[in-house]
Amino acid sequence: MGTTSTGVGLLRGNHRFDLETGIEAFGMGRADVWWRHLPSGGRELVPLLGARLCAMGAVGYDALSQRELAALTYHGASIPGHPLGENKLTTGSVIAVRTRSGQLVKMQVQAYGHNLQIRWQGCPPPPQFRGMKVVVGSAPLWLVSRYVVDCTYESPDGSIHPCGRGEFGADGGVVEDRISDAWGGFPATARVVVAVDFQPDTGLHGAVEHFAPEVGPAGVSMLYEPNQEIQRVKLVFGLTPSARAQDYLLVRWVYQSGTSAGSGSQKTLSGPDLQGNVAQHEIAFPPDASTMAAVDLTIDGVYQAADLVQFKQRVSLPASALAFKFRKQGSGPHYRLEAF
Length: 340
Description:
The protein contains two helices and 26 strands. It has helices at residues 66-70, 226-229; strands at residues 6-11, 15-18, 23-25, 33-37, 43-47, 52-57, 79-80, 94-98, 104-111, 116-122, 129-136, 144-154, 160-168, 173-180, 191-198, 207-211, 219-224, 231-238, 248-257, 260-270, 278-285, 294-303, 306-307, 311-316, 321-328, 335-339. The protein starts with 5 loop residues before the first strand and ends with a strand. The model has no long low-confidence stretch (mean pLDDT 90).
């Protein structure tokens, strides 16, 4: 980012000036130019601390652009301003300055004398931008009701800037915006907050995830995949023999953390769910695995037109899948489930 200092002022004889902030400087610190008066009677504008100068003469000050300043050749030599000899600092003269930190400033002498009446204007380059893109993947409709994505970044000057926001349903979506270097350069990282609201029937409390993706030369491109954040257990039922029209399975689950029971929910599988050779259902729980040690699973229902023997089991987490098969219970019509 270039300086944005702009103003009019007095560059006093034998004094130094900081064109980056527009103030008179004392000593050698934080100064770009020195209006030096020599014992011999000569005067010169001296660049300081690595600053460089280019005397442009009586050119159009107001129309002079950053692009034109950037194309000039700058020198570390002083510019003469002798009242009786060579003088490139006469009234109306324009001097281009590359300051000690490399910023570009145009300066004009409005009145020449023992002191120089000057005006100056910082000419920063146009801001550059890098893309900000966050893709939110989809989740089952029964699980997620809403995603809210909020993107910001902190610029080097300490200020916070928004760079994208979106609200989506379970199908997910895309947030796109830009990050600018206009406040002192590009940040090293961005800030992405994803809030997830679950369907009421799941019994799950909302979750908030924080991310800090790096800002590279191409910006930020981030994928938030719910499958990576929301933990699931797949239940797979082998339907042998085939289920009858009136059969159903009532699946209930309660999350456990240590000795405390948490939230839970239930799902009835019937009709189209029990067609074919296999039935499947996923149960899900919040992203914070440290609070979820196990899930208590209970399955009731009717199978082969008879009441199913109740299945109860505590499943330790994490677990990706649990498979079941039906076994005859004794010599009667009842079946029970076996997990394997």
